[in-house]
Design a protein that fits this description.
3-stranded mixed beta sheet, alpha+beta, 217 residues, 4-stranded antiparallel beta sheet
Amino acid sequence: MADNYLENKFEELEMKAHRGTSRTRKHEGPSLDTLLHHNRSTRGYDPSFPVGEDDLRDIIKVNTLLASAGNAQTLRFRPVWKEGEVRAVNSLVRMGGALPQLHLPFPGTEPPAFIIICTTASKDSKMVYIDLGISFQGMSLRAVEKGLRCLMIESFDAKELTASLSLPFCPIGVLAVGKGAESIFLMPATEGESLKYYRKDGVHYVPKLSLESILIK
C-alpha cells in the first residue's frame, strides 16, 4: 500500500510539472543508438585533452542508478587522474591483446585517466561479474555522452595495482577514459566469419554480427 501511495504521489507531481505540455516530451541529447554506435573500445587518446576528477566522479555516479545483481551493490570505484598515478596504471594494464605486434597504445596516446573498479565481495562470485559488465557499459555510455571514449580492461596486474594505489578492495576491472584519437568503424559480419578486430591504414575495424545472425529462429 505504501509503495502504491508513493508511486501515485510521484505520478501526480510529474503531471503537475508538465501540465499544459504535450504528453510526448521532446527528446534532448543523443539517442541510445547514437551513444552505442560511438561507444567503441579506444586504445589511443588525445594527450592534449585533460580528464579531471569532476569528469570521473560524474561518470562513476551512474552506478547509483544502475541495476545490481541481488541489489548487493558490492562495486567500489577509485578515480585516477593525477599524473603519477596515471603513469603507474598505464604501466600495469595491457591493451590490444588481439594485435600484440602493435604494442598498443602507441607512445604519446596513452589514456589520461582511469576508473579502477573493485569489489567488496569475493571476486569468484558470478554476481560480481554481472555487476561489472553493467557498470562498464553504463559508465562508458556516460563518457560518450560527455564526448569522451573508454576502454574496458580486465588484463592488468591486480597485485601491483592494489599496492600502487593502496586499494582497500580487490580490483576486478579498469576503465580507461579520455578523448579518443582513433578512427574506429564497425564492419558487418556473418556467422562463421572471423570476429577479430583489425587495423588497416591506421583505421581500426570491428566486425559485428547482424540482427539476423544473432536471432534464434
